[in-house]
Every structure is written in C-alpha cells, then in structure tokens.
Amino acid sequence: MAAGRFPNPRSREPAARAPSTGKWEDAVVHVLIAPCAFSGALSAGQAATAMAQGWSQAAPHDVLAAVPICDGGPGFVEAVAATAGGRLHACVTTDPLGRSVPATILLAEVAGRPTAYVESAQAIGVHLLAADERDPTRTTSFGVGALLSAALDLGATRIVIGLGGSGTNDAGAGLLSAVGVGSRARLGCGGLALLETRDDDLHGLEAARDRFIGIDLVVATDTEGPLLGLKGTSALFAVGKGASEQQAQDLENAIGHFVSVVSRVRPPAKELLSGALLRPEREPGAGAAGGLGYSLGLLGARRMGGVQGVLDAVGFDALLAAADLVVTGEGRFDWESLHGPVAQVAAAAGKVGVPAVVVAGEAVVGRREAMASGLSGVYAVAERRNQVDAALADPAGTLTARTARVARTWSPARS
User: Fold this and answer.
1) Distance separating alpha carbons of residues 324 and 31, to the nearest angstrom
2) Rg of the chain's alpha carbons, rounded to an integer?
3) 138 and 279 part of one domain
4) How many domains, the chain?
5) Contact between residue 182 and residue 203 where contact means Cβ atoms under 8 Å apart
6) Which of 73, 80, 120, 390 has the fewest CB atoms within 10 Å around its CB?
7) Which candidate, 170, 295, 164, 282, places its Cα nearest to that of 223?
C-alpha cells in the first residue's frame, strides 16, 4: 500500500458474481482510507496507518490508499505532505508567548507554481501552552507572520495557510508586525494591548500588502465566523483559550478599537455594483484562529474551506475515481461531525457514487442521522462507555483491530 496512491487502478466495471455462492469471484476492493485526527490520541497520519494495517490484516487482497485529512488546524502540513509530496523545510519561529519553537513548511510544485503550505498551529497552537499559560489577552500571533516571511524566502508564489487550534485572540496584529506593519512592541503584545492602538502604529501596512502582490495567499479554515459580535472570535472562543468572561468582553472592545484604527488608515473599498462598503472584519472566516483570518484578509488573502484545501492538495477526486469504498474516521462521531470533516469526505464520495463509512473512537449519533449525512455505516472502537479507557490506553492497536472487523464486513470473502 502506497500512501495516497492506488498502485494498479482498474476499470470501474463491476466484478462478476458467482450465482451459486453469491460471492464475488476474484474481487479486489480499492479502499480509500481518509481519517481525521483522533484528538488527544492519534494524529491523522497515525490513524491512517493503524486503519490501513487493520484492513490489510483482514483483507490482504484489497488495494489501499491512505490519505490523512485535516480541517486546517493541527496536522495540516502533515496531512498534505503525506500524500502531495514536496519537500519539508525546517525553520524556527515563536510560540504565543514569544519562545522559540520548531516548525516545518511544505514546499511543493502545484500546477507549475511553487506552493508553500503553512500551519498556524505550529506557531500559535494552544497545545504549545501549559494550562496556567493560557491567556489570550497577552498571547500573540507574531510567529505565524514569521512563517509567512519564511515561505516567501523559499520562493513560494502561492501560500496556503491552515488556520485552527490557536491559543491567540489578537486579530492577527502580531502577524502583521512580523511582516513589516508597525512594531512588535505595539502590535505583538496580545489582544488586550490593541486598546491602545493609534493610527501611526500601522505604518507600513501598504508596504506589507505590496510584499504579497503576485502571491496567491490562501486561508484554509472551516471556521466561517466574523471577527466581531456575538458570533465573533472573542465571544465564541476566548473563554476556551483561558480568558474569563470579563476578559472576553475586554478583548472584544480592544479588537473593535483596532478595527476602527485600521479602517481609518486603510478605508474599506466599495462593492462595485452596490457601492456598499466591503468590511473585512465581517467576511466569513475573519474570526478564524483568533482573528488571523482578518489580518490575512488585509494582506489580500482569499479563503477556502480547510478540508477542501487538503482534499485539493492530495488529489482526492482522482483517488475517488479509482475507489470502491471510502473509510474515514475521527475520535468522536457526534452531532458536530455531521457538519465537519468526516461529513465532507462522505459528501465528496457520495457525489461520485462511492459508499463511505466511518470508524470512530466513540459514536453518539444515530444510524438515521449518519445515513442522512451520506455515510453507509458507523463503527465505534469503544461500543460501550466501559470500553473507552481501554481504547485510550492503546489507541492505535484498538483502532487497528476495529478496522479489521469492518474490513470483514465490507470486503468480499475469498474462497
């Protein structure tokens, strides 16, 4: 099994059935294994390996392709690199508190363009902070800006930035300071400090935008929320990153002030037909990763869905064309899953008539709802609550064993 590739693509003609036994004769099932991370237990790549091992144990005659899937958050670079190829470049950036941390940028040739894949969580992921360090009033996105500059230095003319899993809430002000806007001392001190922002703190904004002229800057995120308001980044996510309810409100006020300063320094453009002002803080995804979507929009970025960005990068449509079955997975299949990466994988498979099933650590969604999302089956590693601890104690082993049982259900028996 080669990751992300079917070794011997065959025609899509159905296999012949044996009338006496009802079994397929010499049938080979082409299985596309495309899981997400099993949060806190396995990365998407580790999950794909475990599932492929389980399937091969039970159905060694089948042909497998393993494609880790991610929504733009932690594991984004790993998911793309596992299938799309290219070269990983090691670099050093800074974490949300300004400490040096290692990171990797994937540089690949895509449609004749050097394309860099950057993962914001490598610089500002909440996982980089201890529990008592989580304070979005002072954490900064400066490290993501450093990664952007490194991608430019590598000669990329297209940069895809995966957003998600951040421990920051600074509207991307730190990122802007890292690419030449104002100073780190003024913009790189966290979200609460933005309340003191003045117009001259944004000097260099136009020059920073000029740096990205001719660069296809793409934000990959499945978060569609705006920057401000009841559905904005501070209201929905600041408390989960360590803020108190009062601090979340203070961050809302500080970012609102920052936006007003930006709008004075660089007045919003107008929509050509209606003449309405184009407000970057209201754009879908502006609130992603603590507002990084907003700052990247100021630099000229366009947004695409995080899962779709990974599917495009790994050539998922071509893999589907050769597949008979898609097996996806995640740690917990719940109501949010019906609109998440697993559902998007199932929807892509459904468009070309390929059945999809999910193998999850736990499953709390009923069969009817799962089928409505395009899934033909849902299988849990821990089928009862008292099995959860055992599954977490050996996540790879239990996932391998459960996938082997699923393979025996879906792969034709050999005589």
Assistant:
1) 6
2) 23
3) yes
4) 2
5) yes
6) 390
7) 164
For residues 49 and 66, give the distance between their C-alpha atoms in angstroms, rounded to a whole number.
Answer: 7
Alpha helices in 340-411 (DSSP H): 341-351, 367-372, 388-393, 395-410
Q: Which residues of 190-219 are buried (b: 16+ CB within 10 A; e: fewer)?
A: bbbbbeebeeebbebbeebbebbeebebbb
CA distance 78 to 80: 6
Rounded Cα gap, residues 24 and 46, in angstroms: 32
Does one domain contain both 184 and 82?
Answer: yes
406 neighbors 379 (Cβ within 8 angstroms): yes
Contacts of 158 (CB under 8 A, 6+ apart): 110, 113, 114, 115, 116, 215, 216, 217, 218
Domain containing 151 equals 76-308
Cα 222 from Cα 401, distance rounded (Å) = 31
C-alpha triplet 45, 222, 269: angle, nearest 5°: 140
The pLDDT confidence band at residue 186, using thresholds 50, 70 and 90, is very high
pLDDT digit string, tens, across residues 356-402:
999 999 988 888 888 888 899 999 998 777 777 777 888 999 999 99
Are 35 and 180 in a shared domain?
A: no
Residues 252 and 330 in one domain: no
**95, two tokens:** 């974490």
Q: Which among 337, 320, 339, 319 has a CA at the least distance from the CA of 380?
A: 337
Kindly report, residue by residue over 200-234, the tens digit of the pLDDT. Answer: 999 999 999 999 999 999 999 989 999 999 999 99
Q: What is the rounded distance in angstroms from the CA atom of residue 120 to the CA atom of residue 157?
A: 18
The average confidence (pLDDT) of the chain is: 90
**pLDDT, tens only, 193-209:** 999 999 999 999 999 99
Residues 54 and 165 in one domain: no
The verdict on 288 and 151 lying in the same domain is yes
pLDDT in tens, 43-63: 999 999 999 999 999 999 999
Domain boundary (274, 308, 342) is at 308
pTM for this model (two decimals): 0.86
Percent residues over pLDDT 70 in the chain: 93
Angle CA(348)–CA(353)–CA(357) in degrees, nearest 5? 65
